[in-house]
Amino acid sequence: MPLALLALTLSSFGIGTTEFVVMGLLPNVAGDLSVSITTAGFLISGYALGVVVGGPLLVAAGIRMPRKSMLLILMLIFIFGNLLSALAPGYALLMLGRVTTAICHGAFLGVASVVAADLVDDSRKARAIAMVFTGGAAANVVGAPLGTWVGQNFGWRVTFWMLVGIGLVGLAGIARLIPRQPSRADARVGRELAVFRRPQVGLALAMTALSLGALFASFTYVAPMLTEVTGYSEEALTPLLALFGIGLVVGNTLGGRYADRALIPTLATALAALTAVLAVFTFTAGYQVPAAITFALLGVAGFATVPGLMTRVISKAEGAPTLAAVVTVSASNVGIALGAYLGGLSIDADLGYTSPNWIGAIMAAAALALTVASGALDKRGGRRGDLVTEGGEPVPASSQGDGSR
């Protein structure tokens, strides 16, 4: 794999750490800024909203810019947002810093995925995209726990200074290692938007939202499930979350490797596994060792879909993939919010702390059904159905017919 991918992976690691680290620092932030835990929790909601809305708008505004230049600007925004968070004298400026970095989040992962796919040949595109998302997965294993430890021992502002440092290294790596790219004078927002009329692009986005929603329907409420149902102590949650994070890295790696060989079969297998694991988790949650094993497998199955889904979107949006890739990240966050909401409803309905697993299993099964439908559309000759006429000229979708892309 090209060395340039390491710069994208490191930057993704910093971005992923920025997203998750605040969860462990909420008491520290709330106490220092004299706000309630609930108010501090809005820093997470504000970040999610910034990812969903800000990324596509930012990329649309700079659609003609060379992708390397866009990546550099996005990392500068990331650095500025964390710098603002580190220096924020009060809650309002800290929220502004969080939203600023969130705008970079979705845009960076989308653009970086397109750049990563362009750096390698067709047989390694999913693995290249998987490397980008490995940074985010590793943030769960190393970045967020490390940032939480730093914040708890040296102050939460030091954590944001640490993120500024990671951003500077990522910026230097992108500037040095990513090849120079020509300006994109032919890129137009209308052309990028036109790909969303292709049925396969819409299907891929729905698959993304449902699959990530399935994972987070369970994961959002895993702490009370493991403590109240399984019987683990709160101290045991940290190693259990690290085990889950390792599962994310393993699943992401395997998903990228096998998606390069046969994309639709890999997605279908991963989603079938995710459906099964979520259903089984309902029963293994009552026993400590089986619950820990199932929790790790949940990470493997949940993230095995990620590189294949992004590859699918980029492939089906051929000719104008940048905005579609960014919207994929937004779709995943919409799915996460939906999964968390539905899981919460099931708990509020007194169905128990394991009930979100069933919600997730249903969402994963729906994603599997859409995947099968998408593969069938390929086999029926979806190439002609996905052609989009723009300005009197056909814009071709990616090659279809074998169901592998």
Task: Note down, in words, how this protein is organized.
The chain is mostly helical and 405 residues long. It has 16 helices and two strands. It has two domains: 1-182, Growth Hormone, Chain: A, CATH 1.20.1250.20; 193-382, Up-down Bundle (Growth Hormone, Chain: A), CATH 1.20.1250. The protein is globular and about 55 Å long. A two-stranded antiparallel sheet has the order 1-2.
In brief:
This protein is mainly α and 405 residues long. It has helices at 4-33, 37-61, 67-87, 91-118, 125-154, 156-177, 189-194, 199-219, 222-230, 237-259, 263-284, 288-303, 306-316, 322-348, 355-379, 382-385; strands at residues 388-390, 393-395.
Structural class, from helix and strand content?
A: mainly alpha
How would you characterize the largest beta sheet? Answer: 2 strands, antiparallel
Looking across the biggest beta sheet, what order are the strands in?
1-2
The residue ranges in which pLDDT falls below 50 over 5 or more consecutive positions are 382-404
End-to-end separation: 21 Å
Instruction: Specify the helix fraction band.
Output: over 70%
Quantity of strands, as a count: 2
SS strand fraction:
under 5%
> What is the second-level CATH architecture of the largest domain?
Up-down Bundle
CATH superfamily of the largest domain: MFS general substrate transporter like domains
Order of helices and strands: HHHHHHHHHHHHHHHHEE
Tertiary shape: globular
Kindly report the oligomeric state of this protein: single chain
- How many helical stretches? 16
CATH class of the largest domain: Mainly Alpha
- CATH topology heading of the largest domain: Growth Hormone, Chain: A
Transmembrane segments: 38-59, 71-93, 99-120, 127-146, 158-179, 200-224, 236-255, 262-283, 289-310, 322-343, 358-377
GO molecular function, one term: transmembrane transporter activity
GO cellular component, one term: plasma membrane
Pfam families: MFS_1
